[in-house]
Amino acid sequence: MLGQKGAVIWLTGLSGSGKSTLAYALERRLIEIGQLTFALDGDNVRMGLCKDLGFRPEDRNENIRRIGEVAALFAEAGLLVLTSFISPYRADRIAAKATSKGNFIEVYLDVSVDVCEKRDPKGLYKKARAGEIQNFTGVSAPYEEPANPDVRVNTEELTVDQCVDKIVAHLKERGQFDVSDLRKEAEQEKAQNS
Ligand SMILES: Nc1ncnc2c1ncn2[C@@H]1O[C@H](COP(=O)(O)OP(=O)(O)OP(=O)(O)O)[C@@H](O)[C@H]1O
Ligand SMILES: [Mg+2]
Predict the structure, then answer these.
(1) Euclidean distance between CA atoms 42 and 119, whole angstroms
(2) pTM for this one?
(3) Is 158 near ligand 1, meaning CB less than 6 Å away?
(4) Is the shortest distance between the CB of 87 and ligand 1 below 6 Å?
(5) pLDDT tens for residues 93-110?
(6) Order of strands across the sheet with 151-153?
(7) Catalytic: 87?
(8) Residue 100 burial (CB < 10 Å; 0-12/13-18/19+)?
(9) How far apart are alpha carbons 96 and 31 in whole angstroms?
(10) Using a 6 Å cutoff on CB, does residue 112 contact ligand 1?
(11) Atom of ligand 1 at shortest range from CA of 41
């Protein structure tokens, strides 16, 4: 009905790597080409769904677990879900992938702490260096790089538009917008059940 296959497009990277910027640029592009999307972002989820959680490791685990579950439900409903969370732990991302039953595209925003710190769009690195924020990823808490991301974008070398192009090209390659495959699957299922 929607002309697309639902999937979770999971952006991961340091604070300031460009997850929110890219998610919203990607959302605009997908809407332009007629794809239904929904963006879950750190800044909105932490105010509602996860407002009871802090930044201790166990809170971060639970934060990502809930987001993974919600994203998987939206993907099951056929949407392209864009998530933009630091999601620093590899095990949490692997668990989110398992929750989405394979409909999961890990996008790693591969850019150094130095670059992110120079950008510091929210002034968070400054506060972390001054000791005003504890457990800050890249400064006083770890970031575990994805071992084998589906898409790697270097937001220092590429413009926002180029990053979006790269992700959209990957989605096309995966057949994410190819409805005929879905119809075939549905027909096969129907034939098997009859
Ligand atoms: N290619 C690019 N992709 C994304 N952002 C870029 C790129 N080039 C430069 N930027 C800039 O980098 C900054 C990224 O900030 P943004 O808030 O998107 O990061 P974030 O990863 O969402 O951080 P946080 O985890 O704190 O929410 C913005 O100021 C953006 O304009
Ligand atoms: Mg953000």
Answers:
(1) 18
(2) 0.92
(3) yes
(4) no
(5) 999 999 999 899 999 999
(6) 37-41, 80-84, 7-12, 104-109, 151-153
(7) yes
(8) buried
(9) 25
(10) no
(11) 27
